[in-house]
Task: structure prediction
Amino acid sequence: MISGGNMRRFKPRLFVILLIAGMTGVISFLLVDLSALLANLPAEARANSTFSPFVLKLLSVLQASVMLSIAVVVGVALADKVGLSSPAAEALAGGGRPLADLKPQIVPGIIGGLAGGIGIALTWLLWQPFLSPTFVSRAEQLNGVLPFPTRVLYGGITEELLLRWGVMTLLVWLAWRLIQKANGKPRAACFVSAIIVSSLLFGLGHLPLVRAMDVDFTAAVVSYIVVANGLFGLVAGYLFWKKGLESAMIAHMLAHVVIVTVLYLGV
Result:
């Protein structure tokens, strides 16, 4: 809960800017062809679906909107307390020069995105022999129905606001308050532990999607999902800590570009 003092320092313009940015990703989910996705599932799984694809889309957008709003509030209220920031968005909210604050984040974001995208692709190649043909087939089908704008906007912006701006910021703040008793600046251990935990949560957060694919939760499947997504979470978390939220967003967007390129080439 945000105290009265925090509310007086709350930055409504920054909240609106980040919320609008995140909502572009949420709304892009409407581009997903859920009918095609459901058509690739077994008849039994389709029969168990209570809602139509259109209703499922609306419910997903509503759920994501609520989660995004909470994450943005948390980040706006706590990020500056622990030394985390969204430099370009904060400059825009404060009437500064957002492009000047974005510039130092671009190259680190590009490097992180290339490394993260290649790492995810290599993880897929390494794990594929241990994954069931059913999982491989449905994962490829899922990749085929995810529009590129949704990958870039939801993954690159919305997920970063949820996992880095919201969850990681909260974890750093909790570690700082509980372990350091809010004395001085948060130590590196607070950030490192928050990066690891948020990366693990980022990986685990993809498991419901795997469940929706109606495949067995084998050790190989679970480890692949957690490792592939968790490793990128480490990259994005480090960039958020050292460079700023926009750097993590750039990396996440570019990682999806690399993944789509790999899929297109049929590697």
Observations:
- Residues 1-8 have pLDDT under 50 and may be disordered.
